[in-house]
Amino acid sequence: MNLLADHGWIMWIIIGAVAGAVAKALMPGRDPGGCIVTILLGIGGAVLAGYLGHALNIYPPSRGADWIAAIIGAMIILGVWRLIAGRR
């Protein structure tokens, strides 16, 4: 399923919640925030995956990230967050 297609904002929230929750479940340890942070994490993961997919010519210009890529993008963002927060 193409996540960066013309979905409404409700679909972005649903996609973000699912991708963020799966990313948090796959990465053990303490995670920041609650529902809102999880949704933003998933949305950010989808955007990151779409950007990287276009930059690396994995996706054609009319296509965005899929579910697995969104989850992996959310895991990357969560990993970077833990690196930054762990240094405090």
What does this structure look like?
The protein is built from 3 helices and no strands. The protein is an all-alpha fold.
Q: Strand fraction band?
A: under 5%
Number of helices: 3
Arithmetic mean pLDDT: 80
State the total count of DSSP E strands.
Answer: 0
Q: Supply the number of structural domains.
A: 1
- What is the C-alpha radius of gyration, as a whole number of Å? 13 Å
Q: Structural class of the secondary structure composition?
A: mainly alpha
Order of helices and strands: HHH
Q: What are the segments in which pLDDT stays under 50 over at least 5 consecutive residues?
A: none
Q: N- to C-terminal separation?
A: 38 Å
Helix content: 55-70%
Short description:
The protein has three helices and no strands. It is an all-alpha fold and 88 residues long.
